[in-house]
Amino acid sequence: MVRSDVFLCELCPKGCRITEGYSGDCRSRIVVDGELRAVTYGRPCAVHIDPIEKKPLFHFLPGTTILSIATAGCNLHCKFCQNWTISQAAPQDTTSIDLPPETVVKAARARGCPSIAYTYTEPVIYYEYVLETSSMARKNGLRNVTVTAGYINRRPMELLCEVVDASNTDLKAFSDSFYREVCDGRLKPVLDGMVLMKEKGVWLEITNLIIPTFNDDLNMIRKMCRWVLANLGPDTPLHFSRFYPMYKMRNLPPTPVEFLMKARREALDAGIHYAYVGNVLGTEAENTYCPKDGTLLIERIGFRIRQNKLKDGKCPTCGDTIPGVWNHGARG
Ligand code: SF4
After folding, report:
1. In the predicted model, what is the mean pLDDT of residues 123-129?
2. Is the CB of 15 inside a 6 Å radius of any atom of ligand 1?
3. 3 state DSSP class of 155
4. 38 CB under 6 A from ligand 1?
5. Domain of residue 253, CATH code
6. Spacing, Cα 30 to ligand 1 middle (Å)
7. Global pTM?
């Protein structure tokens, strides 16, 4: 039983019970004066303009820039986190600026960014800031993107889907024990959240960071691809990303490029139409090809587009529609 002076946070599956003056596991949701709040509301600790390819999103407004913000904290604690200096920090230990939703929207418009990303740390834990900025962005003709681990309860995810246009969701491994031991989370809520996003029409791409000796298991990758195919469909792009030693996993080597290529091959052989390799420069695995006739559609080098041959979202050779959101016009 929960005492009346103990607040239950129902935002994510951690279900923290929090008393006055204390924070939940994510460090940013704190009970102050008898109210549970995100103390980071309107106070990002990171603000940048990125190419959208950096999120990575390859089928969503390619070649555009995206205003990207983050506040401190995270509800997971991945031992390999690439942004651990802000994701694993308490808000008071980071430098933040005052940036209310209307200023974020104005800044995006002033800099010619057609979309805003809630990224770097975990947008779930600055939920209210994301919701309000997103709905204001929508009213101003901008789109919204979450780059997330997707560790959130169903009801808040449903509300988020009403204002978010696209998401790159990390699927850290197709293994509950990996989630428990390496990330301090669980697998199932992440899978459920992705299915929900797809049902609600959010454009979804998935990133799987492959870490040597931890999740570099082709059988697991095969199972993951089968699950994606059956539950999200073959047009959900999968990005296999190269691990570099970081945070509590500095003792491991970077992922061998050959293994990433094998993972991509598994995905394509399983029937996934768009599989990419990320964090590796200058390979054909960064490009988009027509799944029907193999035509090179978008050629990339790093985060830069070299050429985009799509014609109104269609393959110029066979005329097949390539799924994605390809222009700034009406929402698809
Ligand atoms: S969002 Fe934060 S406070 Fe709320 S349940 Fe999750 S970890 Fe706990």
Report:
1. 98
2. yes
3. helix
4. no
5. 3.20.20.70
6. 9
7. 0.97
